[in-house]
Specification:
Order of helices and strands: HEEHEHHHHEEEHEHHEHEHEHEEH
Helix content: 25-40%
Radius of gyration: 27 Å
Strand content: 15-25%
Distance between the termini: 52 Å
Number of helices: 13
Mean pLDDT: 90
Low-confidence stretches: none
Strand order of the largest sheet: 1-2-7-6-5-3-4
């Protein structure tokens, strides 16, 4: 029962000798995962993830690209009230010294930590930042932060990630406590949260894992990826009413005056769609009057009339369904003119 998707993808990358492919190798997956912890709201025993991995490059631009991909996906669903947190987990050169400082701090505050966090002091003190217990959060609020101990290369890498995000006008908050829940992360980590999900408010997150390929027996190969929790995403979409805000566009309806012209009308239909115009046609053999009634009921903004006479003259009539105004357009210019009309509407 796999707990997450990155490690299996990396194993497949190594076992299938994908290091011989042009790098970076960009992959995605979708599927069920499983967790042992107690179920909570939006946190199930079996849950689904959509994941993306880019393996083979340590370029900070790839970090930014991964973050942008996730943000743009959420935007495409109509989500707006989101917050992006980013952090750097450092690397081999700076983390050991920091871990000792953190362990010393945690040991001095052991009695104030929960039982699970007391175990984490020896196992992996970074996970102390991930605890949701209020008393532990109060302790860790004053703990030393890894960002203050980054080695020069890691600091430059993180600064470039931030610069790339700023160039694309992506707002973010640097959150030093963001360590994510898995031990393989290095350098960049990130997380997107929704204000509609309560305590378990992350709908997606990920980070860089420059040592993971080596752990699976491959040669040193950097990588970065993220995963989206589909159940939490569905809850966020529903609670924000995101789908309701996505306009159901009905731009152009093609009314066919005679079935003999249907093949020509179909060509125009696909040309309109190719131009980014929402378009449809009658598939029920309705009369012209019934087609207009259907177009009006469905809320199409414009109707294009195509019949033998229009094809012969190479001019079609276009009706504004709201105003009733009708114009004639040269059939060779129809796509361009309709694109301009729809864009301006």
């Amino acid at each position: 029962l796999r707990p997450e998707g990155t490690a299996p993808v990396i194993r497949a990358y190594v076992n299938n000798n994908m290091q011989q492919l042009p790098q970076p190798v960009k992959l995605y997956y979708m599927g069920p995962m499983f967790r042992y912890e107690r179920p909570q709201a939006g946190r199930y025993r079996q849950f689904w993830q959509i994941g993306v991995e880019a393996i083979g490059s340590d370029d900070p631009a790839l970090d930014a690209e991964s973050i942008l991909l996730m943000i743009n996906y959420f935007k495409s669903l109509g989500l707006k009230g989101l917050t992006l947190y980013i952090n750097s987990m450092g690397c081999d050169k700076d983390r050991p010294k920091y871990m000792e400082l953190l362990r010393e701090y945690a040991e001095a505050n052991r009695k104030r930590l929960c039982k699970d966090c007391q175990k984490r002091i020896d196992l992996n003190p970074l996970r102390l930042f991930d605890c949701k217990d209020e008393s532990c959060q109060l302790v860790m609020k004053d703990a030393p932060k890894l960002l203050n101990y980054l080695e020069e290369d890691c600091r430059k890498h993180f600064n470039m990630v931030k610069r790339y995000l700023e160039m694309q006008k992506i707002e973010y908050i640097v959150k030093p406590e963001l360590v994510r829940g898995l031990d393989y992360y290095t350098k960049t980590t990130f997380e997107v949260i929704s204000p509609f999900l309560g305590a378990q408010n992350a709908i997606g997150g990920g980070g860089r894992y420059d040592k993971l390929v080596e752990e699976f027996g491959g040669s040193p190969t950097p990588g970065i990826g993220f995963a989206i929790g589909t159940e939490r995403l569905a809850i966020a979409v529903e609670k924000e009413g995101a789908f309701d805000s996505i306009e159901d566009r009905m731009d152009v309806f093609i009314a066919v005056a005679d079935q003999s012209t249907k093949p020509n009308a179909i060509d125009i239909l696909y040309a309109l769609r190719e131009a980014g115009i929402s378009a449809d046609i009658d598939y029920m053999g309705r009369s012209l009057k019934a087609q207009l009634k259907y177009a009006n009921r469905r809320g199409f903004k414009y109707t294009v009339f195509i019949g033998p006479e229009e094809l012969e003259k190479k001019r079609v009539a276009v009706r504004n369904m709201e105003t009733g105004e009708q114009i004639e357009i040269n059939i060779d210019e129809l796509i361009k003119v309709m694109r301009d009309i729809v864009k301006a509407a």
